[in-house]
TrEMBL record, chain B:
<feature type="domain" description="DUF3502">
    <location>
        <begin position="452"/>
        <end position="519"/>
    </location>
</feature>
<dbReference type="Pfam" id="PF12010">
    <property type="entry name" value="DUF3502"/>
</dbReference>
<dbReference type="InterPro" id="IPR022627">
    <property type="entry name" value="DUF3502"/>
</dbReference>
<protein>
    <submittedName>
        <fullName>Extracellular solute-binding protein</fullName>
    </submittedName>
</protein>
<dbReference type="InterPro" id="IPR006311">
    <property type="entry name" value="TAT_signal"/>
</dbReference>
């Protein structure tokens, strides 16, 4: 029923209603999508929407209630705790009883001399992670889609998905075996370098390569996961489109490039937006499991999350850590808004909001 | 649209079902969680303990609770928190106002913040009441006095099983026999042993997971600190042990002036840094100290992958490592070596400040019962039940007062509840050398009281600067302690970070407080 009043083919293939589509009513008719349309029928838009909401959609409220309660309790309610960022927090007096400290908690981070480095690392690492994992996901999906044997494709699909379930701790152990070996003086990579008469590298004392090492780990971990999402999107592309391509004499590669890839744009846009929303969150689990307290690597790996955790663990100052967390959230929110704006400006058909 | 799917589930049924499940979930979430096991009619105390749950814990806890309820009318419900999370988790629980009753805390954890916030209970009044005789008998007055806060109050019960906490070595005795003639009596001899083992056995001389300043900067002894072998009298002064160390003047007590200087102005410490760097480059120590945890390092040692490890005078070196080592390397044995040129005739300085203390939560359900529990576990039979398990099943008495483990129950974290110097039993398989050192370390008379023995500085005036310093030490100090960085450029980086963090202000404050302390001592 979606798109009954029209809409572009792109949204028709994904089943997503656009701003121009109408919402089907219980009688099967399509109601006007805009207030102007409602007014044309002589009913004020606000009143009409209110009447219909109460009469027809009470069930939706009940359906939505668990989710609303969930977000109120676990997302919006805890925001009250952000007040700690402006307090000289005291355990005995608690969150709402501690004295005010103004902006002094923010001074710690802004005067630490490490802010620029931590912000740079956070943005650079996450941009690398996002670009590399999405790119790898698309590439893997295209490759898997080209495999004709169903059994082989499903087998490979499962195989590339498995790393998603591997714990960061286990990944850190793998990595130590690869880069350092027992006692920190070997590792598979160094053994391979030695085969070619190249000198061993003390990976855990060289901060330079670590953004790339972490990116490779991230691709290994998430490439398969994203490929499954893209593969699901590919399966929803109508066969007719490919048949038209075949009739036009397109090769498999041309169809992948000219048909599949463009039709993956909406899915990619959603994943990109979700990724940008978290770009200020540095994948604490993976980075901390791998880098830990190795200060030598902080120059290229220390992100806001690891810094906050270390700060809380070592000197237990909730006010300071809450202030850094608030800063992180505000900047993350701004980035999401910017990403959304850019998306609406340049690719409105794939915008989700 | 009577049904929402082909199975015939009606829309109304679906909505009612969803609402019902939500209501059940909400009601479950609103419970106080007290319906779990362990709670009895007499009530149950909640304890925070670090580490993993010991094997066979439920069975032993059942026996403990049965006796505890018969004796005092209540039970205990300990909650184990992994070591790696303990500091943050326990602090969060205090912050959240949870009503647990006891926890482990210390200066290297968050006790300063807890005291400042009034989150833990002062204990002097309770002791003055005389209601807890076993507790007061088994914890020495020296231990209490050394752990008084600047306001004069005691906020934690020292959970120690020895008077002194001295850093030393556990070595593979079979390798010492092969390469050092059966004994190690000097740092030079130890160093030669490490190099010989590395050259001929192909394993590091020393292995460690996690870098610590105590390895390099003696306090008064350190693993890579030869100065401490000759003169075990220097104990650095600090706000917290994961922060910047300052060295007091040798004559501080007589002049009344601490003359504190940062550690890099104390030449023996800088020499020790150069030494550990050399060991790193020569393969004498493991190169992944910064990346592996203590359990991994221990596993490598007990599988025969190194010649020595760090030890402290808690009497657990042999029992915690020999069984695994013997299984992996038939014929292997252990010995402990204390780094003193004069052997046990040396009289090293000690502050007697406890590494671990049991604190009472001001929001706890019942502080009186918590003290009754701490008194109860100070009795030998109760201490044994909790620490070693059920006699005859988990352990047996040998040689009069030693214990031999029979089952798998082990590793109860007594340092967070029940360690008492007079109540600890030695393991039957404890090496002779560890036995001698452990016995010696339990006598307060074997040590010199440090001039700053009960000095616990107030962090309040320099909290922000100190936080910056701690962060900088984590980044620039740990690689130096591990030998992973060249000393001169590494120290330059560290000093620059310290200046940015404002260490001069911290030093001035510490000097002022230390001098005031010395003046108070007369």
């Amino acid at each position: 029923m979606t798109g009954a009043t029209g809409g572009d083919p792109m949204t028709a293939t994904t089943g997503r209603p656009t701003a121009t589509t109408g919402r089907p009513t219980a009688t099967g008719q399509t109601e006007p999508a805009t207030p102007a349309a409602a007014n044309r029928r002589g009913v004020p838009a606000r009143r009409r929407r209110g009447v219909q909401w109460r009469r027809k959609d009470y069930g939706l409220v009940i359906l939505a209630a668990p989710a609303i309660v969930f977000f109120l309790v676990f997302a919006y309610g805890p925001m009250a705790g952000l007040v700690v960022a402006f307090q000289d927090f005291n355990i005995k007096d608690g969150v709402f009883g501690s004295p005010w400290a103004g902006l002094s908690n923010f001074e710690f981070f802004f005067t630490s001399g490490q802010m620029a480095r931590i912000l740079r690392n956070t943005l650079v690492l996450n941009a690398l992670f996002l670009a590399a994992t999405l790119g790898a996901g698309v590439l893997l999906a295209l490759m898997l889609n080209e495999i004709r044997g169903t059994l082989l494709r499903r087998g490979l699909q499962s195989a590339v998905f498995i790393p998603y379930f591997v714990s960061p701790i286990v990944i850190s152990i793998f990595l130590q075996a690869f880069l350092a070996g027992v006692g920190g003086r070997g590792g598979i990579v160094n053994d391979a370098l030695n085969v070619f008469s190249l000198p061993s590298v003390s990976w855990y004392t060289e901060p330079g390569p670590w953004p790339w090492i972490l990116t490779i780990v991230k691709v290994w971990q998430l490439g398969g996961y994203f490929s499954v999402i893209f593969l699901a999107a590919i399966t929803s592309i109508p066969e007719e489109v490919y048949e038209a391509g075949v009739i036009d004499g397109a090769s498999r590669a041309q169809m992948a490039w000219r048909i599949t890839l463009p039709l993956l744009k909406p899915t990619g846009a959603v994943l990109l937006l979700l990724g940008v929303g978290r770009i200020f969150y540095g994948d604490f689990g993976l980075i901390y499991a791998i880098v830990g307290d190795n200060g030598i690597l902080f120059a290229t790996t220390d992100v806001i999350d690891t810094y906050v955790f270390r700060a809380l663990r070592t000197y237990g100052d909730f006010g300071t850590t809450a202030a850094i967390g608030l800063f992180q959230s505000v900047v993350g929110f701004v980035l999401v808004m910017i990403a959304l704006g850019v998306q609406r400006r340049y690719s409105k058909e794939s915008s989700i909001l | 649209m009577a049904a929402i799917n082909d199975a015939g589930l009606s829309r109304r049924s679906f909505l009612l079902g969803t609402a019902g499940l939500g209501a059940v979930g909400a009601l479950a979430a609103c419970g106080d969680g007290s319906g779990g096991g362990g709670s009895t009619s007499g009530g149950s105390l909640s304890l925070l303990l670090p580490g993993d749950v010991p094997p066979e814990w439920d069975r032993v806890l059942g026996a403990v609770n049965e006796k505890l309820e018969a004796d005092l009318g209540f039970t205990i419900a300990p909650e184990f928190i992994a070591w790696s999370n303990y500091a943050a988790q326990s602090l969060l629980k205090f912050t959240a106002g949870e009503d647990f009753d006891t926890a482990l805390s210390a200066r290297w954890l968050n006790i300063a913040q807890l005291v400042e916030s009034g989150a833990i209970v002062g204990l002097d009044g309770a002791f003055a009441s005389g209601d807890y005789p076993e507790l007061q008998v088994t914890v020495a007055q020296d231990a209490f006095d050394a752990n008084r806060w600047p306001d004069g109050a005691v906020y934690g019960i020292p959970a120690v099983n020895s008077a002194a906490r001295l850093h030393h070595y556990t070595l593979r005795a079979d390798l010492v026999d092969s390469y050092a003639g059966g004994s190690i009596d000097s740092f030079d001899q130890l160093e030669q042993f490490w190099y010989d083992v590395h050259q001929r056995e192909g394993i590091p001389g020393f292995i460690r997971g996690g870098a610590s300043p105590w390895l390099v900067l003696g306090g008064p002894t350190g693993v890579f600190f030869p100065e401490g072998w000759e003169d075990p009298s220097v104990i650095p002064v600090f706000f917290s042990s994961d922060s910047l160390f300052f060295v007091p003047a040798a004559d501080a007590a007589s002049t009344g002036s601490s003359d504190l200087v940062p550690f890099w102005e104390h030449q023996p410490y800088v020499d020790a840094l150069r030494r550990v760097r050399q060991y790193y480059e020569d393969g004498i120590i493991n190169a992944d100290m910064l990346n592996i945890d203590t359990a991994t390092a221990k596993g490598q040692f007990t599988s025969g992958g190194a010649a020595s490890v760090w030890a402290i005078t808690d009497g657990t070196s042999t029992s915690s490592q020999l069984p695994e080592l013997s299984a992996a390397v038939p014929g292997a044995s252990l010995m402990n070596v204390m780094p003193f040129a004069d052997g046990l005739a040396a009289r090293p300085n000690q502050t007697f400040q406890a590494d671990n203390m049991v604190v009472l939560n001001a929001s706890g359900s019942d502080n009186t019962r918590a003290l009754q529990l701490l008194d109860w576990v100070s009795k030998q039979e109760n201490h044994d039940l909790l620490q070693y398990g059920i006699e005859g099943t988990d352990w047996e008495l040998v040689d009069g007062d030693r214990y031999r483990q029979l089952g798998t129950y082990a590793n109860f974290p007594g340092y967070a509840l029940s360690w008492r110097v007079d109540r600890e039993r030695k393991a039957a398989d404890m090496s002779d050398s560890e036995d001698e050192l452990f016995t010696w370390s339990q006598d307060y008379n074997n040590f010199e009281r440090d001039p700053f023995s009960s000095f616990i500085p107030d962090l309040g005036p320099v909290e922000t600067e100190h936080s910056q310093i701690t962060a900088a030490i984590a980044e620039f100090g740990l690689p130096l302690w591990a030998g992973a960085k060249d000393v001169d450029p590494g120290l330059d980086e560290l000093k620059r970070a310290m200046e940015t963090a404002g260490y001069e202000k911290v030093l001035d404050e510490l000097r002022t407080q230390a001098d005031a302390y010395l003046a108070d001592q007369g």
